[in-house]
Amino acid sequence: MAMRTFGRHSILVRSASVLLASFFLAGALTIAATILVTGERQHKAATQHLEQLLDTVESTVSVACFVKDAQLADEVALGLLKNQEVLSVVIEADGADLVQRSQPGAPSGTATADYPHLSRDVYSPFNPGKRIGRIQVAANARAIQRATYDEVRFVILQTLGQLGLVALAVIAVMLIFIVRPIKAMSDGLHHLDATRGERLAVPTNHGDTEIGRLVQDINNLAGDLADTLGQERRLRLAKEVEERKYHSIFENAETGIFIAAQDGILNSWNPAFARLLGIPANSDFQGVLNIRQLAWENTSRVVELGLNARLDNVGVSDDLAIRPRGGNRR
């Protein structure tokens, strides 16, 4: 489960998902634009082709209409129908149909009126200003649609192939130049022991890149951490030495030494103080005895000294007499 979660959140998977989504969106927009542009271009190309066909047979149709030769007009119509883009042909002479021809299976007569068509007036070969007939060509919309579909399908496949190759190339580049070095850094960090002087290795060919600088920064931080830990260890050892010296002085001093809180509770005292005041050892009654409970001859003076030291935040001193039980005044 952890591996699956890591995979979903890896740089490669997330980057590839964004790239594929971007390419899919770009491909969809490209395909939509291709369908529109290709359809319009095919329609214009079909119209231009029909115009060129009419230009080619115009003189022959003019002769056929002038002499009212149905056989010649029929040959012209059959020649035009050899083009799949032509659905039907109607040639008129002096207002009467000279010939009507259409593709096999196509509607005949006025049923082709709903299809896109071109018509051109026919003039006399000897008097260009005299109209003697008309030729009408209906476009084969299905053939034009099939041609448009074939071209659109080719463009779609070409576009998808190009986008797929670009996506694979980008993902491969990311995997080789970004994901692998970062994964190597991550694996190295998991096993890195900075205190032992271990450092991350700079990935190959990334000495001067952002990844290389990141590795150098991590190594510098690891070095600073190791130095800080070493300094902290040295300070701790020095503190332990000083504490041992202090305890040695505190325990072996002939002068009575004690530490008291603000409320007068004795936190610590040395053996000399215990012998002087006739109290138990520090380890037995630490935090229990109050300085006012000791055998002072003038307890109020002790309280006063403590109060003055606390209020003025200065050291105070005085000679105080003690009178242990059953002992002499000292």
Automatic annotation (TrEMBL):
The chain crosses the membrane at residues 160-179. InterPro entries: HAMP_dom, PAS, PAS-like_dom_sf. Keywords: Membrane, Transmembrane, Transmembrane helix. Signal peptide: none annotated. It comes from the Bacteria. GO terms for cellular component: membrane. Residues 242-279 form the PAS domain. GO terms for biological process: signal transduction. Residues 176-230 form the HAMP domain. PROSITE patterns: HAMP, PAS. The keyword Thylakoid does not apply. NCBIfam families: sensory_box. This is PAS domain-containing protein. The lineage of its organism: Bacteria, Pseudomonadati, Pseudomonadota, Betaproteobacteria, Nitrosomonadales.
